[in-house]
Amino acid sequence: MNLILFTFIVLLGFTSYYFGRKKAYTIQSTKKRLTALPQFYGYYLAIWCAIPAFIIFSLWAIFEPTIVKLLILSDYSNQGYLDDELNLLYEKSKALSRGQFTGEITPFIEASAEKYLSLRSIAQSSKVVIVLSAIIASVAYAYKRISSNSRTREPVEKILKIKIVKNKSAIKIALRPYKRNRCSALYLLFNNCSLFLFIFFSIFFNYSQGHNI
């Protein structure tokens, strides 16, 4: 599901670029002066399409496992288990839900495994709905902005500069000795996605424009 959603966001980003650039040419055909080159209208729409979705996607990937774990272990909060025992119960429940558990199956572990599957299903469905809602809202806002021929180059360049600074900070955090963790690695991964897409947009679409692809 995560790979499908990730791919969907990327494809929508590419599609948004074409719609943004096409809208710029439409504005230009009415004899109005553009505030930037047509490709910046495409970049602007693509960024507004992809970045909010990637932010939600990355935050969800970071916090979902922790929240699911807390909800599962809340059933054992008043039973006097130690932290290590609770972690073991959670891992057993997760393994059982995936069909990978070969030990003794107790009613508690079985109930937790069912709850785990239910929570993951709800989380995945909620993530899709929220990401798609964010894409619709952000694209509608950005399209309205470019339709009114608002400035696009300055916001695009500003966002790119911010992403570069954030990436440098993320790399420093992720590479600190003895402090490598899942959150910093995921943050670095998803924080680079939007920057990579922007650079790829620049190379590919400038090439395609120059060769009339």
Describe this structure in words.
- The protein has 6 helices and no strands.
- With 213 residues, the protein is an all-alpha fold.
- It has one domain.
- Helix 5 runs antiparallel to helix 6.
- The two termini are 32 Å apart.
SSE inventory with pairings:
Blueprint: H1 2-29, H2 38-73, H3 83-97, H4 107-147, H5 153-174, H6 182-210
Helix pairs in contact: 1-2, 1-4, 2-4, 2-6, 3-4, 5-6
Features of the shown structure:
6 helices; disordered C terminus; single chain; 213 residues; rod-shaped; mainly alpha
Q: Whole-Å distance between the termini?
A: 32 Å
Strand content: under 5%
Largest sheet: none
Structural class, by secondary structure, is mainly alpha
Order of helices and strands: HHHHHH
- Summed over residues and divided by their number, the pLDDT gives a mean of 78
Whole-number total of structural domains: 1
Give Rg in angstroms: 22 Å
Principal-axes shape call = rod-shaped
What percent of residues adopt helix (DSSP H or I)?
over 70%
Low-pLDDT windows of residues: 177-182, 184-189, 207-213
The count of helical stretches stands at 6
* DSSP strand count: 0
